[in-house]
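thought: user wants a sequence for this fold. calling inverse folding tool.
action: design(structure=
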């Protein structure tokens, strides 16, 4: 299926950035305001920056969080709820990033609970899936991604917006990306899982690709069938690199 929806170009700053980096967001916002790319633009930043990032974005780009708690509120010292992210100025949140699955032991059930919480708070939930290098070598990519989708996606309340990000673990920060045929195959598989589960809503959901997306490869990735946008780590940290990706958006 060919995606004709407006692509989502999303950045993930991970655990990078203090207040002195906000000028990068101001620059990205200014350039998006001037060039009006045919894409929705989102920067997901550390929770400590969301309030100031939303101000720096000046309504030109959306700001999101990188994780949220499963619960709405309560005695969970150190956790940040989806409502808190929203209150600070976020309109989206990434859940189930492989770095959280790996370093914090987040299971599919935990990721689904976090996504549910995000949707309840009115945030776009971007749910990450992706296989490890060993799983790909063993021919398990489709099974792993299918299982992650089945386990990590919550029911969608009325008006809730969900997106999936396919991020092969071995492509993150490595400079290696899958072949076009591999991206197309996984996205097609994810699409059929989404349609099976959600019907027409599943047809309209964006499936982003993430993992070593840069200016040089962004256009060819965005051109692929069923790629509804990209999730960018390292190249989202500087306004110059992120702008270069934005310029690659097909017009
Ligand atoms: P890189 O773009 O640095 O490979 O990171 C991808 C990623 O993990 C985005 O969530």
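)
observation: tool returned 251 residues.
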């Amino acid at each position: 299926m060919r995606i004709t929806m407006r692509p989502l170009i999303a950045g993930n700053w991970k655990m990078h950035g203090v207040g002195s980096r906000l000028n990068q967001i101001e620059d990205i916002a200014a350039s998006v305001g001037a060039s009006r790319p045919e894409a929705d633009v989102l920067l997901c930043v550390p929770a400590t920056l969301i309030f100031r990032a939303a101000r720096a974005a000046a309504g030109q780009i959306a700001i999101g969080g990188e994780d949220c708690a499963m619960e709405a509120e309560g005695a969970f010292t150190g956790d940040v709820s989806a409502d808190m992210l929203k209150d600070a100025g976020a309109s989206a949140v990434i859940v189930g990033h492989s770095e959280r699955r790996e370093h914090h032991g987040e299971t599919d059930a935990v990721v689904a609970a976090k996504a549910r919480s995000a949707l309840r708070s009115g945030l776009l939930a971007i749910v990450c899936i992706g296989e490890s290098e060993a799983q790909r070598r063993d021919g398990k990519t489709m099974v792993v991604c299918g299982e992650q989708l089945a386990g990590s996606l919550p029911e969608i309340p009325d008006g809730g917006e969900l997106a999936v990000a396919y991020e092969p673990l071995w492509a993150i920060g490595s400079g290696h990306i899958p072949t076009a045929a591999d991206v197309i195959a996984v996205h097609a598989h994810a699409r059929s899982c989404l349609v099976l589960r959600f019907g027409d809503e599943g047809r309209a959901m964006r499936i982003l690709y993430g993992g070593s997306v840069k200016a040089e490869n962004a256009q060819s990735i965005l051109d692929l069938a069923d790629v509804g946008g990209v999730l960018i780590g390292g190249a989202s940290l500087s306004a110059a690199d992120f702008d270069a990706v934005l310029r690659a958006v097909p017009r």
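thought: summarizing for user.
answer: Here is the designed sequence. The pocket of 1,3-dihydroxyacetonephosphate is lined by residues 12, 97, 167, 172-173, 210-213, 231-235 (CB under 6 Å).
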